[in-house]
Amino acid sequence: MPKVVPEYREQAKERILKAAAEEFAKRGYRATTMNDIAKRMKVSKGAIYQYYDGKEELIRAMAGPFMGQMLHDAYSPSKRDMKGTAVDAFGRFLVRTPDWVFGLMTELYPDAAYNEDIKHLVMEMNKMHLESFCEFWEGRKIAGELPADLDVMAVGKVYLATVIGLIAEVASGLPRSEANEIWKEFVERTAASYESKRRPR
Question: Angle, to 10 degrees, between the axis of helix 116-142 and the axis of helix 82-96?
Fold first, then answer.
């Protein structure tokens, strides 16, 4: 009789996600199989499928809470300074994120071109980020820190593309400190441009 995950449902799901993260860190996303995760847990592969349909669902379960907490911290109502918020958010992301996550994200974006599940996952993560960014920057427009006619969504997409590019660079060996300095320079220059055109108070 195959072994099953013995804990209650939530505990079992947490154990599975932990084992999946360890395998992704060891092998990378593409090379990891559900069987690898089951072996690490010393359970049957079928036991994991009772909780998750596949690797894409595992990634979604990991990404949701991680992104939610990161965005909450970055764009909480207590944050008021536009430049400081953008710089601080990426800086904390660099500090908090394990190395393997950068590699994982770099694998996911190319896979989205031909894997519909991954494509939807990437779109969900991008949407979460853009919505938080736009809500914050719209507030800065109301406060008079930004031009009234600024297309916040367009700016958000540029910021997001820059973040994704820096993540890929870090995964390829760029020191995190250097990535952070590049980001600071980018934020300073773009914010200065918008601030110079802001509406009068």
Answer: 150
